[in-house]
């Protein structure tokens, strides 16, 4: 049965034929109208290959004054929502191309999804990674079943090599783009959320340069209910989507941060289809600070036991930062789309977030180097219910006076109020206490 709504006209306007950039040598896809039926067909075709992830009511709801439902796409096998678009893309390839194989060149979530699903479909798959790629990512792709080749010191070197191998051997070079097939696969997230959470008022998605999830899901949700507010969230450091929407075309030569923490959030805007769909169907795009993303990661770990990366946490960060006050009292779904964060980065992120929340504090003070003086300091900390994480004593390089010791202490507190109480108690006993500010 065909469901007709005025949103098909919006989609038709948004996807009038736009030529693909010549540098995209991957899938030769026609930028046809993305219809609701296309997204429904994708959902039917991939239902046995991807998880129907839960969209669960969150304990964070009371804290932020709204009913928050978290769509946990990080529970996909490779830890990313990209599986939906990738699987539909691979299943749509002609059989002769499936026999020849595909090749990708990056360490992104897209490449990991290609590695896994191509192997599951018995499609030969090659992943070219630079020598600077994290060993865990290389190991993961090999475990998924891909042939992983290390080449070059930069991502560009790997891409050039992958294109050459594709041309010489007949492989299809895949690069994340906004073909109708890929967007339809990603749009199945919107279908599931609409089914799982009745009477939704708003849905929050990660945005940034790779806004295919936002665009595809917006197409599905706006068709089903034009009154649902669709909101995209990107980083203040590189507001690629906002700049592209303002310019009316994908922004080029963006100064994006290459740090692994940001992942796909900092990618360049990759296509006109996604951009025009976003311009037509998305109600609002907001930007958040890096600090808000870190605190959002901490909230998800504490309240949901969810270990996510920046892309996964950025949607909730808009609520943490108070960027969407109009959603108070509303029913809101947030897509937690990715959970692929390297372990050493996870440690750093949680430590930084605790510091930002004033839950880990550091101070230094100079006391007499006499027996029992350090014990008196520890008694004050115990009385104030501060947990000592680290304590160091410096005697040799103390310049204030002889026979004194500088004590540098890192403690854990409950919150900002508790930190202030501890600070006042220390200043009362040790007036020259130096409190390290974040």
From TrEMBL:
Task: Name the SUPFAM superfamilies on file.
Answer: Tryptophan synthase beta subunit-like PLP-dependent enzymes
PROSITE patterns tied to this protein: ACT (PS51671)
Which cofactor is essential here? Answer: pyridoxal 5'-phosphate
Q: What is this protein called?
A: L-serine deaminase
Write down the superkingdom of origin: Eukaryota
Protein's UniProt keywords contain Nucleus? no
Tell me where in this chain the ACT domain is found. 362-438
Q: Please give the Pfam families that the UniProt record associates with this protein.
A: PALP
* CDD domains per the UniProt record, alphabetical: ACT_ThrD-II-like, Thr-dehyd
Q: Which Gene3D superfamilies match?
A: 3.40.50.1100
**InterPro entries assigned to the protein according to its UniProt record, in alphabetical order:** ACT_dom, ACT_ThrD-II-like, Ser/Thr_Dehydratase, TrpB-like_PALP, TrpB-like_PALP_sf
Q: Which organism is it from?
A: Chaetorhynchus papuensis (pygmy drongo)
Name a GO molecular-function annotation.
Answer: threonine deaminase activity
Gene Ontology terms: biological process: isoleucine biosynthetic process; L-serine catabolic process; L-threonine catabolic process
Annotated keywords: Lyase, Pyridoxal phosphate
